[in-house]
Write a structure and sequence with these properties.
This protein has 193 residues and is mainly α. It has 6 helices and no strands. It is elongated, with a radius of gyration of 19 Å.
């Protein structure tokens, strides 16, 4: 799906998101009852009062803004730590939400993770992975061009960026459709258990 001139980018992203996931789990061990009540209320409200089109538009706009911000960061040579923090934060969110499900619903929470969380996380993670890898690749290519005498092939770089941005935006669109139209039914199914 994604080809990069720098294969360590894949390992970097997967390592940072895994560390964030573990940190989110550790952070989740300090959950209080107010947090579990908030999750329960949020899931019930989403299942009962969801307006699919408005939710779709808001999720899609948020996703497009996210892709745009990450892309803009990639045009900077010093963006790697910022992108790394964003990836870490996404991993922390996933880990914390998993623990929050389990602390709120106990054994039923594992079913909630499988039914409602994993499908949306897969789409979001794939979009995040593609755009962050593209952005890091762009940043590293710009840095290499600054410190070496080789001329950067703008045409091939531009083609890779456009392809990866298109893939990321397609995944964002699929994620928004999933969250707005399918996830709501999955949450209703989860609440009926």
């Amino acid at each position: 799906m994604f080809k990069t001139k720098h294969p360590n980018i894949r390992r970097f992203i997967l390592t940072i998101i895994t560390c964030g996931f573990i940190f989110g789990i550790i952070l989740g061990l300090y959950i209080n009852t107010a947090d579990t009540n908030i999750l329960n209320k949020m899931i019930i409200d989403i299942g009962a009062n969801a307006a699919s089109y408005k939710y779709f538009v808001s999720e899609f706009i948020i996703g497009v803004l996210f892709v745009g911000i990450i892309f803009i960061l990639g045009t900077s040579i010093i963006s790697t730590p910022i992108i790394g923090f964003i990836i870490f934060y996404k991993g922390t969110q996933i880990g914390y939400t998993c623990i929050l499900y389990i602390m709120t619903y106990h054994l039923k929470g594992i079913i909630g993770i499988i039914i409602t969380l994993i499908p949306q996380v897969i789409l979001d993670f794939m979009a995040t992975y593609v755009i962050c890898a593209c952005s890091l690749n762009l940043s590293i290519s710009l840095l290499n061009n600054c410190i070496s005498s080789k001329v950067l092939s703008l045409r091939s770089l531009f083609n890779r960026i456009i392809n990866d941005a298109f893939i990321a935006l397609t995944l964002i669109l699929l994620s928004a459709v999933f969250k707005a139209y399918i996830l709501i039914h999955l949450i209703k199914l989860f609440c009926s258990f």
